[in-house]
Design brief:
By secondary structure, the chain is α+β, with helices and mostly antiparallel strands. Helices cover 20% and strands 33% of the residues.
Length: 318
């Protein structure tokens, strides 16, 4: 009986320790299976339960989902079958842009839009979209003073078009240069984190593995439609590249009771805030282990008392 109780306690402790807290101890996450995609990508019937694909997209089950190959005039897309309805979420994508040519283009995009699976002129997806687009643009058309490849976000209202001639300069919400993101020597990734009405943050990994570079962060995020589809698309013109999706890891984020969603740090207060969070996390950890020690002490006393009673009975028998 005692060992059964101890086993149950151990399982509970293991489950507690396995909760993903992220960098902020007050943030928890739950994997969104409906929007996560990893090798081998396809089910036994050679289709994906959660994603559709079309255009020139090619799937190699042991390696990648190739939205466009290193050939001219390619367009391909990959879109979730069910909408993303989570209020707060984090989407981490491993991708690869590669090619042998000195001149290359055009790039690929990540979408959170009402439209899904519609071929078009905006990195392989339809124009006049409604929602959020993240563009990894590798070919510079006309943006003096901007270093390419360039990563930018655009918020579409369903009416305003993306202007390819100036690389979407007038409709850019935020962005950053990312020289070295093509033909990188490490796995290249992007991580988009969104808290409704609180923050939107885009991070990139392409210089050093496990080192995330902040592309942009705002505590005044755009309004994203409550029902959107997660998708990816790519396009090549006269110039070309391979645009591959390696994996998609989507999570629903939520905060614990009494905590607030993250916001931009105020100079001079970041250290105090971090210390408070560490103390809060430490107090909970210590409280949890005190419970374990208490139960173990009771159990140990019970085992000792039982052994003593058994010895007493044996001595009376002789």
């Amino acid at each position: 009986m005692w060992f059964s109780a101890l086993s149950a306690l151990w399982l509970a402790a293991t489950a507690w320790a396995a909760v993903d807290r992220g960098e902020d101890g007050n943030i928890r996450s739950i994997a969104l299976r409906t929007h996560t995609l990893k090798q081998p990508y396809l089910d036994s019937d050679m289709s994906s339960r959660w994603y559709d694909f079309g255009g020139d997209t090619v799937i190699r089950t042991d390696s990648y989902i190739r939205l466009s190959s290193d050939r001219p005039s390619q367009n391909g897309w990959l879109f979730s079958r069910v909408p993303l309805t989570a209020t707060n979420w984090e989407i981490e994508v491993e991708f690869k842009i590669s090619g042998k040519n000195q001149l290359y283009g055009d790039g690929f995009a990540m979408w959170l839009t009402k439209e899904r699976g519609q071929l078009g002129p905006v990195f392989g997806h339809t124009n006049n979209f409604e929602g959020l687009g993240i563009f990894v643009d590798t070919y510079k058309n006309n943006r003096p003073g901007t270093v390419f490849p360039y990563v930018m976000a655009m918020v579409g209202d369903g009416k305003t078009p993306y202007n390819k001639d100036n690389d979407g300069k007038e409709t850019e919400f935020a962005g950053c240069s990312a020289r070295g993101i093509r033909n990188a020597n490490i796995p290249t990734k992007l991580r988009l984190t969104y808290f409704q009405d609180k923050s939107l943050k885009l991070e990139l990994q392409y210089k050093t593995e496990d080192e995330w570079l902040l592309c942009f962060e705002t505590n005044e995020p755009p309004t994203i439609p409550s029902v959107t589809y997660l998708g990816f698309s790519a396009e090549t013109g006269e110039l070309s590249d391979n645009h591959d999706i390696i994996s998609i890891d989507a999570k629903n984020l939520y905060t614990t009771a009494g905590s607030s969603t993250p916001s931009k740090k105020t100079p001079g207060r970041g250290g105090a805030s971090k210390l408070a969070k560490q103390k809060e996390g430490g107090s909970w950890t210590w409280f949890f282990f005190k419970i374990i020690f208490f139960i173990l002490a009771i159990g140990g006393g019970y085992v000792g008392w039982t052994a003593y009673r058994t010895n007493q009975k044996r001595s009376h028998r002789f």
